[in-house]
Design goal:
With 128 residues, this protein is mainly β. Helix content is 3%, strand content 48%. The protein has one helix and eleven strands.
């Protein structure tokens, strides 16, 4: 049984940093693309970044995130990290980690429908 658990969300001031963690069980990272999505109140899911299973390379979906966010993973711990720097109030959202339902590769366009295993989310709030 696949389980995904996020942690690390918090309230921070604009310009601050956070590192989110996503620990997955019941799967092998090599076989699954893993992604971070976020959802702000009243808005739809927004893809942040997807990491390919085998290569570990990533596709950043948010232009605003490319220069400020970075993703890494610890294969031994089955844990994915999202380092977020220079946070802005518009980054305020619930952040979700998800494992692909269709294999180890990320698609060019982000779609939550491609991901079948989701965590409960971790709240990131950035004050101005």
């Amino acid at each position: 049984q696949v389980q995904v658990v996020e942690s690390g969300g918090d309230l921070v001031r604009a310009g601050g940093s956070l590192r989110l963690s996503c620990t997955a069980s019941g799967l092998t990272f090599d076989d699954y693309a893993m992604a971070w999505f976020r959802q702000a109140p009243g808005k739809e899911y927004e893809g942040v970044v997807c990491t390919n299973g085998r290569s570990g390379s990533s596709i950043y979906y948010l232009d605003s995130a490319k220069a400020r966010f970075s993703v890494s993973r610890d294969i031994a711990k089955n844990t994915l990290y999202l380092q977020m720097n220079n946070l802005k109030p518009e980054d305020t959202a619930m952040y979700y980690c998800a494992a692909s339902r269709s294999g180890a590769y990320c698609f060019i366009a982000a779609s939550e429908n491609d991901f079948g295993y989701w965590g409960q989310g971790t709240q990131v709030t950035v004050s101005s």
